[in-house]
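ok so I'm stuck.
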Amino acid sequence: MSAITIALRRAMRLDGALGVMVVDYVSRMTLGTLGTPDGLDLGKAASGGTDVVRAKLSALDLVGYAPTRLEDILITLDTEYHLIRPLNRRRHEGLFLYVVLDRDRTDLPSVRKELRQIEQLL
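replied:
not stuck anymore, here's the structure
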């Protein structure tokens, strides 16, 4: 079983997890997905997430911040959280985790802690 598959399965065990992806924001290629959030096409979300990550990294560069300072990007919707975690602090620069979470069942500090652990698997 690949490291990506293990990471995806572990992320889906997070309280409130609806879907998770590992995406390469350089090539826009989705390397793996798991879950089926109602009404959300994970492929399209991955593509949109790529644009978000690229824009934020560009903005950080513009103000003189190192990309390694970026821990995650939180998008808050009415019923969901979309949490994007770039993996630019390790050797996997160019990849990010994208997790879709049920807002009512999610404890963000716990999710962030677990994602740091999951990142170590990749």
